[in-house]
Specification:
180 residues, 12% strand
Amino acid sequence: MILSLIEEGGVPEVRCRRIGAPLLFERLWRESGCQTVIEELIAGRRFEFAVERAIFLTVLHRLMVSGSDRACEYWRDDYRIDGIEDLQLHHLYRAMIWLGGELPADQQAGRTLVPRVIKDIVEERLFARRRDLFTDLSVVFIVLSDQVNRFLQVFADLFGSIHILSTTPSASVAVAGAEA
């Protein structure tokens, strides 16, 4: 097919674009919740461009080569990244301005010495999504003895609330944790 095009005098336009980093980081972006958190925050806003895609593009660019938004506009031509075709330089600027936008005064009081911005909300929501089940766990004991049941009773009396994380069938080993 390509040889016949060349024989007829037409040369197909062939472009080589990289896909590795965009595929890897796109998956991490989605699975970590970045995409969802940003989409939740922009819901109801009337942006006329894909804000989440603009932020993803600038983050990916900074991970790969660390340059300006202007450099990102040219860098992206070498990569296949879904949803960025219609983005222009001013969209990248507007997305970064939105991320750095100050929060209202009622969300500033008593927090920090510098003004809080939307980026802070993104970070807080991402942290909240990734908390594990034992965030409040402060003490873990591993017991290797024949008196596991007695230990667990004393442990419960001391801490009031315990979680039995693991025991063996012979009941000679137990792993228990207590909340602070």
